[in-house]
What we know:
6-stranded antiparallel beta sheet, single chain, 161 residues, alpha+beta, Chemotaxis protein chec
Amino acid sequence: MLNRCPLPLRASFRDVLRDLTGRSVTVRAGPAQQLDGDRCAYLAGYRFDEGDLAAIAVADADLSVGLAGALAAMPPQDALDQVAGDGILDEELFDFFHEIVNISAKLLNSPTTPHVALREVTPVPGEVPEDVADRARRPARREDWRVGVDSYGEGTITFLA
């Protein structure tokens, strides 16, 4: 039997982000994300309890910094200033972004599928596990969204399963 997990629904993802950040959040369909080798993005690897890959999420630099900054309640301009560079999160902002993608794992679970949990968050470009890279190249299902966080700007996230 093929293990599958549901991909999040836009409204559910929006609600999780709104509840976490305390900010108004919009999530709408977006274009297929194209990663830029000059700016960092962050890949979240979600796995079934036995270790097999269930899904991945890739958030661009704008969204990663915006979400982390909103969760950290840092002044929006301070977060946006970090995006102006290469988009690499410092350790504190990385921890806040990690918390967001960790809590979002609940949206990949259902009563009829095996349990899924966040297992890795990796900057890209960077060292990506082989099974994750393969899934990114050939997903069976995908969702591409533009996410806006009040005062923190807008970015793209792609869920692949």
